[in-house]
Write a structure and sequence with these properties.
single chain; six-stranded antiparallel sheet; elongated; three-stranded antiparallel sheet
């Protein structure tokens, strides 16, 4: 029996290699099971690596479900001061960001806000936006925001040849990522100020929205050269209007071919 035990230990030592023998100079009968398990592990591991390689793809992340609601209630019961809800401050109409719809984005923008009921804010105040000529406001907006979303050139004609609407320009904005806002001329180049339209739910905030978006433009932005058409419904006369970099223009013209689009823009004042 003793000879059989010694033979088993000797075979395990040979199987595990010289390193194991060097590290464990003395083997007891209590080590037999462990040495056998290690030898089997190395053999199985070597076989696995030879079949599949040493690298193993990581497993995908898994969601761990925790009872967060019950944990929150437990914490709140012991320290209620940690969960004092701060009162929500109602939005005051401040415009923090804006995106202008380009002329070729009108259908998308219109579809996005097709269900909006519009409220309008006129020019019946005494700010720069209400007292400055509309042509100058347009020039400053052109410098800051770019070309309008829609002008006379994009508007339709009745079968009689008359305009469906008598708006010279419109800027269509999406402010604060989700709210529609339109800025429109009042009566072309013959009037002062602009009209602002927004969602009727924010009717009382329209003035603050207008000032937030446009007041700094009037104070800080220089006018840019532009050219457009305008039709005066009262007199039935077409005009070529705009700003050439030094003076504002309003010249009577023959009815233009609107199929050709917007009129040719003047040379920018920087290049004059």
């Amino acid at each position: 029996m003793r000879q059989r035990w010694i033979l088993t230990v000797a075979l395990l030592l040979v199987f595990c290699g010289q390193e194991v023998v060097a590290q464990r100079a003395r083997i007891t009968k209590d080590d037999v099971g462990r040495l056998y398990a290690e030898a089997r592990f190395h053999r199985e591991f070597s076989a696995f690596v030879s079949r599949h390689g040493a690298a193993v793809s990581p497993r995908a992340a898994e969601w761990l479900m925790v009872a967060s609601d019950s944990l929150t209630d437990w914490i709140r019961s012991r320290n209620p001061d940690l969960f004092v809800e701060k009162p929500k401050v109602p939005w005051d109409g401040q415009v923090g960001s804006w995106t202008l719809a380009a002329p070729d984005e009108r259908l998308v923008w219109g579809g996005q806000f097709s269900d909006v009921k519009w409220a309008y804010l006129g020019n019946n105040y005494f700010t720069a936006l209400d007292t400055v000529e509309t042509a100058e406001i347009r020039a400053r907006m052109e410098r800051h925001f770019g070309i309008p979303t829609r002008t006379v050139a994009e508007q339709s004609l009745h079968s009689s040849g008359q305009m469906e609407e008598y708006v010279q320009f419109e800027y269509w904005f999406t402010v604060n990522d989700s709210l529609p806002l339109k800025v429109t001329d009042v009566d072309g180049p013959f009037d002062r100020g602009v009209i602002v339209a927004g969602d009727h739910r924010y009717r009382r905030l329209l003035y603050r929205m207008r000032q937030s978006l446009l007041a700094a433009v009037m104070r800080e932005v220089e006018p840019a050269a532009y050219m457009d058409y305008y039709f005066n419904v009262t007199t039935g006369v077409w005009y070529r209007t705009g700003y050439d970099g030094s003076e504002y223009i309003m010249s009577p013209i023959r009815p233009p071919n609107l199929a050709r689009g917007r009129p040719e823009q003047p040379v920018l004042e920087e290049a004059r």
